[in-house]
Write a structure and sequence with these properties.
seven-stranded antiparallel sheet, single chain, 3 helices, Immunoglobulin-like, alpha+beta
Amino acid sequence: MTSVTYPTAATAATTAGSPSAKAAAISSDFETFLKMLTVQMRNQDPLNPIDSADYAVQLATFSGVEQQVRTNDLLKKLTENLGGAGLAQYGSWVGMEGRAALPAQFTGEPVTVLPSPTPSADSAQLVVRNASGREVQRLPISTDGAPVQWSGIGQDGAMLPTGRYSFVVESFLEGARIAEASAEIYAPITEVRSDASGIKLVFQGGGEVSAGNVTALRQPV
């Protein structure tokens, strides 16, 4: 009797997980599966025939994998289309100034920092850190959220080096620190990107945030 090997649930799953051209491959494999299933029926032992339910299970399993592959491909195409629509929507933001919690590129000119102390705080401080995360300055600020003009002049009266600086607001109540949050700045938007996590905006100086974290837009000043 001729020995016939046919696809099983395991081989079908392996085919479904293979990269590139898997949809075309599984469609071809499905036709091959039907031919091999026919050969198997013709060559089965008449005294010990295979239960018809086994055929149904094999057919349903392979068909289910095929449909899942097609569904995954459809979802991928929909995601790509939505991502492209997002890029087109946010593309108009390029060249504008966006407000977000990101580092500032200090070039010697003052940087406008937009702090948000905790409402219950009775005092607050603006902490300035360099690109390596080291604290380089600490300044008292008001608790009303008024913008702060950071001049870039250190405690010794000398201008700090050019580079990237981040700003953190520490809120205090009766001398105890009760909260810490990144302060926002305005910076020019230079690029819009799309990845698995969504739409990202790239700012002048290299800062990058999700589009949903941009809290305001304005024309360059």
